[in-house]
Amino acid sequence: MHYLLTGASSGIGRAFLELLLKQAAATPASSAAAYTAASTPAEAPAAAPAEDPAVAPSAGVAPPNLSLTVLSRSASKLHEVQTLCAPYPCRGLCLDLTQPELIEPQLTELLATAPPVDRVVYCAGMTRIEAVTKLRYAQNLAMMNLSYLSLVELLRVLIAHKSVEHQTKVVVVSALAATTGAEHTVSYSTAKQALETFVRHGAPELLAENVWINALAPSYVDTPMLKFNRLIDRNFATNVRKIQPLGLLSPQAVAHELAALLESTCCTGTIRYVNGGMRY
User: Fold this and answer.
1) φ, ψ of residue 153 in degrees (nearest 5)
2) Degrees (nearest 5) of the Cα angle 46, 51, 54?
3) In a structure prediction context, what are the per-residue pLDDT tens digits for the chain, which is 280 residues long?
4) pLDDT score recorded for residue 82
5) Pairing of β 119-122 and β 168-173
6) Cα diameter, the chain
7) Sign of torsion, CA 123 252 75 117?
């Protein structure tokens, strides 16, 4: 099973990667054989199709024959992630997703020697707390590129390098802020709304290419992206309970939600809200 990951160096993306590695390492050899049989139609018994729960891996569980491709704009963080992934094969590509025009030439070269991509987790993101009257075009464009336009370009390139018979499942990480909004986060919220709109309306066309896509939209998660919130409010972790009764969500808990959505056989084009009790 070949996973392509963005945003795997911190936060939800890092938690998902660690979950994936832990589950792969814990999968016994007997399950490995069963997974291989289920994943290879030519070798699978006629009575055991891939969707049979007796032979298919359970929802959210990484198969033992794991390989990864990781995209990061930081060479040092990319190296850190590749080291973490050992002994599983992990290809790395240093790529700035605020510049979608770089995706095709760089990713095409990598895909030429890589196995087909089975799963994509698009978790790249950044936040900016700024009054709407102070936002600049370059800042808005970078946010939109990272949250939305680079995803579209990445999927276009992936589809061009796979057969329609090969299924690829995608989960993109959005945010509940796309629905609720928050003061001084209009650039972030707008970019995430564009992402969700693409998921909803692009899903039928992507399904024709055997690509399933869903979005996970969590509320406040305890990640480095909240550093600006903590600077503004030193008691943010406590005060957030006024609007999010369950408190800050842990990246590990959200990673489990992501893993389950990634292996769903019931939906495509949906937004899965992880609200921490927040009303929306």
Assistant:
1) -70, -40
2) 80
3) 999 999 999 999 999 999 999 999 887 654 444 434 344 433 333 333 444 333 333 345 545 589 999 999 999 999 999 999 999 999 999 999 999 999 999 999 999 999 999 999 999 877 767 777 787 888 889 999 999 999 999 999 999 999 999 999 999 999 998 888 777 778 889 999 999 999 999 999 999 999 999 999 999 898 887 777 777 778 888 888 998 999 999 999 999 999 999 999 999 999 999 999 998 7
4) 96
5) parallel
6) 63
7) negative
Stated as kind and residue range, the H or E segment containing 213 is strand 211-218
In the block, tokens 């196995």 appear at 115
Sign of CA dihedral 168, 77, 88, 216: negative
Domains of the chain: residue spans and CATH: 2-27+62-274 (3.40.50.720)
The side-by-side arrangement of strands in the sheet containing 90-94 is: 90-94, 67-72, 2-6, 119-122, 168-173, 211-218, 271-274
Single-letter amino acid code for the residue at 132: V
Q: Which DSSP helix (H) or strand (E) runs through 18?
A: helix 11-26
Q: 13 with 7: CB under 8 angstroms?
A: yes
Token pair of 168 as six digits: 């690829």
Tokens 């808005």, residue? Answer: 140
- Where does 172-250 have alpha helices with state H? 177-180, 186-207, 227-232, 236-239
CA distance 95 to 153: 13
What gap in Å lies between CA 66 and CA 85, rounded to an integer? Answer: 10
Nearest to 158 by CA among 193, 197, 126, 114: 114
